[in-house]
Amino acid sequence: xxxxxxxxxxxxxxxxxxxxxxxxxxxxxxxxxxxxxxxxxxxxxxxxxxxxxxxxxxxxxxxxxxxxxxxxxxxxxxxxxxxxxxxxxxxxxxxxxxxxxxxxxxxxxxxxxxxxxxxxxxxxxxxxxxxxxxxxxxxxxxxxxxxxxxxxxxxxxxxxxxxxxxxxxxxxxxxxxxxxxxxxxxxxxxxxxxxxxxxxxxxxxxxxxxxxxxxxxxxxxxxxxxxxxxxxxxxxxxxxxxxxxxxxxxxxxxxxxxxxxxxxxxxxxxxxxxxxxxxxxxxxxxxxxxxxxxxxxxxxxxxxxxxxxxxxxxxxxxxxxxxxxxxxxxxxxxxxxxxxxxxxxxxxxxxxxxxxxxxxxxxxxxxxxxxxxxxxxxxxxxxxxxxxxxxxxxxxxxxxxxxxxxxxxxxxxxxxxxxxxxxxxxxxxxxxxxxxxxxxxxxxxxxxxxxxxxxxxxxxxxxxxxxxxxxxxxxxxxxxxxxxxxxxxxxxxxxxxxxxxxxxxxxxxxxxxxxxxxxxxxxxxxxxxxxxxxxxxxxxxxxxxxxxxxxxxxxxxxxxxxxxxxxxxxxxxxxxxxxxxxxxxxxxxxxxxxxxxxxxxxxxxxxxxxxxxxxxxxxxxxxxxxxxxxxxxxxxxxxxxxxxxxxxxxxxxxxxxxxxxxxxxxxxxxxxxxxxxxxxxxxx
Length: 684
Fold this sequence. Notes:
Elements: E1 3-9, H1 18-26, E2 36-40, E3 44-49, E4 63-64, E5 70-78, H2 81-90, H3 100-111, H4 115-118, E6 121-129, E7 134-139, E8 148-152, E9 155-159, H5 162-168, H6 177-186, E10 200-201, E11 206-210, E12 216-220, H7 237-255, E13 262-265, H8 270-282, E14 288-294, H9 302-312, E15 315-321, H10 323-337, H11 346-358, E16 363-365, H12 370-374, H13 378-391, H14 418-425, H15 436-446, H16 454-459, H17 462-470, H18 482-509, E17 514-516, H19 522-530, H20 544-550, H21 556-559, H22 571-574, H23 581-586, H24 589-595, H25 600-612, H26 620-654, E18 659-663, H27 665-677
Parallel strand pairs: 2-18, 13-14, 13-16, 14-15, 16-17
Antiparallel strand pairs: 1-3, 1-9, 2-3, 4-5, 5-6, 6-7, 7-11, 8-9, 8-10, 11-12
Helix pairs in contact: 1-5, 2-3, 7-8, 7-19, 7-20, 8-9, 8-20, 10-11, 10-26, 11-18, 13-15, 13-18
């Protein structure tokens, strides 16, 4: 993984200066601590911060093709680069590096825009075509890696993170109130946006071509198809497990390709344990594994993690995470994530990636994605129960099935209460609604919007989030099963914009760690989508094919274990007698008034209640509201009070780093002529 940034100038605009590009890429030093590269011509400036994983020698970017008509600044990994390179060399292409990056420019020479669908990887591509004077901004199928852009006058800026856009000086950070409100309902902004006004995100599976007039041409180059493959309709559970194991082994084999050691995350759950077991089957050399432990027994999975590590034979490392650790990590998580959070779950993962780095490992495999593609979440069971209940809405027995799901949401008989059933009954009859499975979750989280200021609440438009997602329904969606529709909605509205960002790329790259996801391999996903529902979920039994596969490699304590969602302590870690100073400071009336994003009276009342009760709140929605408000204040403080100094500090650090600069000769000649004529000011 790396960091990318750049500026494309309009036909009659001045190109970005080298100093502006340096200020931008300096903000991404955490993504690429191994050196910096730049390319400039009379239209574009490309910048790159390098994290060396493949092609350690000679892999500095930007990289070009043979005649230097194509230039690329690339973040990510192309896992099938060996096979693509072999084919391209057979077609006459000549390479000057051993990197996967160079494969992309030669593939684009050969296949043009059809290249994107051929790439098995996780990537954000910035490719400049000097002949056509066109820039391509391209993101991988599932949006594993981020890529943002902003238009300012006759310039288009782009970067891996919004802070790099701000670092260059052309883009001033300002919050978009409507998108802030989206976070307080959907946990993230819509997939095409950010919380900053005018800062957009390249959506997953999307290639944006920017022409010479700076017009954007958007193409979605891939979409999932959850229609059951007729040839797989009659598969037995064992046969489904066979197919899944075959595809996962291929995916892991590709993701073990690296010029540095590759480790594994072990959470103690089914998904990461399967990945660890299969990785050890392929790689019998010394392998490191990593896990998070919690001082709070309600969140801890230490016995399961150690059981798996011992069973598969890894050298296991773990961190013990308590309230003070979450308190210390949360401000850094927000700085790197660039968005408020309604949960603290990313904080322990930030600390875990730091442990990976300190252990000398740069790449880890994760089990993320199995729940989405193989129906492991309780939201799918909830959807099934509510649809079943909706067929007989007067039934007394059917709603009792709700007591078998969400094991951590309510205890002590609350699941049998009329209040619990009424909560899930609301909107139950709207079974044809696009987001039927997700409406209950969003309604619950939206309660937290009452802590936002009147101006932000007035700008709230939750329908715009849903309208954007619904506008990109895949072909054939209406013919999919209800389970398949729910799976797609979970991928589009939660996995891509929240999970792979807040709990994936941002916390890992904050510590220069690359996370790879075998369950998100294209061949694995296409198989999972095509499998019949009955080998994914039968009744309320989940991930059947994966559990059958796991039974071949793991102890019964793991493959028979019920799904336990990854969670971390929230208000109990942040409020009460042990609350850190920054919580009280940022939620004080003065601080709330200073940023003007919240309802100060409502926040103060709920925060005071949390302090009195040592963070033990009546329900999860109150916890999410407080965490969301606190992290919004943390983000506002970072943007308004810390960012200018950080830009200066990072720029100074870059001056001490290894830098490679490539510039078009005509640009050099023009700059030289300008210097001998009249001195020009530095671009800002």
